[in-house]
Specification:
The protein is mainly beta. The protein has a single domain (46-76, 134-425), classed as Porin, CATH 2.40.160. The protein contains four helices and 18 strands. A hairpin with a 2-residue loop joins strand 10 (253-254) and strand 11 (257-258). The relative contact order is 0.14.
Length: 426
């Protein structure tokens, strides 16, 4: 048996016995056994933001998730992520777990129900138990808090083609509390489905419909199907197509208004395509997001309306939104790549079932990534946003989302921002 230098040094001065150390190694403790397959990983993300247009605080870019005015024209710590997990093994009754913890500015408000205050800079992003049941090819279950299966982009910026998030990401549900079940039908087709307390991020959050408080019929239900092209598809092999839907109550407060479940739930539709091309260095992508706020965000039940002090009996306000994004990535070398994204967003406001107003946005983003150092992702990004049309009546843009309407956003319709990002993954 081999001993490390520290153990040999302790043995030399008589503080430990090599025999006892050998016996301890032969019989690991219960703690050692439980932690033997546990892995610890994560990353540290830092960035710089330069606003190339004036009045950034009132421009569309000021509402982009995780790019608040407080990050303008300076250097920033974005977030520190710590992941602790034990993956499932190949056994028919395998089990495991995962915990994702966030620290830093990007954790602020991520799920305020577990924070001491809404401005606390820490959050539990995921915390779930994995279980497998030997039914057919095996069903993998998640119980706890987990990421929504819908969406082209994710919270971790290095897993996205670009550093800044899309408007589509703003529309999509992010964090769910409940259960999900994943079943791989064959090598090309897999499905996932489940239920959650509500579609709104927040651990143990509840749907607060005034007439059906905590009713099981007002939970959130979701499903997603993913198809992966087999090798017989030639150059398109490995391309994926995903479609999903999530229906459930919302319970957010934005600009002083309560959205969603007071008189109607919200449904999110998602479709995504990642396409390999005959030119192996080039990949493309398409994302489609649509959210429909059924029956209005405000209802006639009780003193609800634009404000409790000024109720509008019988009035209903509905906000629907759509985002279409096109993606492309060219990997020039093992270290150098170029990524682009173009996006169109439309949000429509309805009052009493009639069209009221709309807000239309476009954005173009170009990103250069050069990974010079091991375990480090470094990016330089240029982004242009423009508000094509908007009025104060369309302030319902992206209800139940992470996009924040900037103050006086109709005054400054264009914004250009330069971003630099450095992420170390461990």
């Amino acid at each position: 048996m081999k001993f490390n230098k520290w153990t040999l040094g302790l043995a030399a001065v008589g503080l430990v016995s090599l025999t006892s150390v050998a016996r301890a190694d032969e019989k690991p403790s219960a703690v050692q056994t439980a932690l033997s397959n546990t892995t610890i990983s994560g990353y540290v993300s830092a960035s710089a933001n330069v606003a190339l247009t004036d009045n950034y605080a009132n421009s569309p870019a000021a509402g982009i998730p995780f790019q608040p005015v407080s990050k303008e024209n300076g250097f920033n710590l974005d977030v520190v992520k710590l992941s602790i997990s034990k993956p499932e093994d190949e056994g028919p009754w395998a089990s495991g777990y995962k915990v994702d913890l966030l620290f830093g500015p990007d954790a602020v408000g991520y799920n305020t129900s577990v924070n001491t205050t809404s401005t606390a800079d820490y959050a539990i992003k995921q915390a779930y138990v994995n279980l497998r049941t030997p039914v057919g090819n095996g069903i993998d279950w998640q119980f706890g808090v987990f990421d929504s299966p819908l969406g082209y982009e994710v919270f971790d910026s290095t897993s996205n083609p670009n550093y800044t998030r899309s408007y589509g990401y703003s529309i999509e549900p992010t964090e769910l509390t409940g259960f999900s079940a994943t079943y791989k039908i064959n090598d090309t087709l897999s499905v996932v489905g489940g239920a959650a307390d509500t579609s709104v991020a927040g651990i143990n959050n509840r749907n607060s419909d005034v007439s059906l408080v905590q009713s099981s019929w007002h939970l959130a239900y979701f499903g997603d199907v993913t198809y992966t092209a087999p090798s017989s598809f030639g150059w398109a092999a490995g391309s994926t197509v995903s479609v999903g839907v999530l229906y459930g109550g919302t319970d957010t407060i934005n600009n002083g208004y309560t959205r969603g479940d007071l008189g109607g739930n919200q449904v999110n539709y998602y479709g995504g395509l990642t396409l390999n091309t005959p030119w192996t260095k080039l990949t493309g992508g398409l994302a489609f997001d649509y959210a429909q706020n059924y029956e209005g965000g405000y209802a006639s039940e009780g003193p609800y309306g634009p404000s409790s002090a000024n109720p509008i009996p019988g009035a209903t306000y509905r906000y629907d939104e759509m985002a279409i994004g096109l993606y492309g990535t060219y990997k020039a070398t093992d270290k150098l790549s170029f990524s682009g994204r173009g996006e169109y967003v439309e949000a429509d406001a309805y009052s009493g079932g009639n069209y009221n107003s709309s807000l239309n946005l476009v954005e173009l983003t170009g990103t250069v990534e050069y990974d010079l150092w091991a375990n480090v992702t470094s990016r330089l990004e240029l982004r242009w946003d423009q508000n094509l049309q908007g009025s104060s009546a369309a302030l319902g843009l992206l209800p139940n989302s992470s996009y924040t309407i900037p103050t006086n956003y109709t005054t400054q319709r264009d914004s250009v921002g330069l971003y630099a990002s450095v992420v170390y993954k461990f």
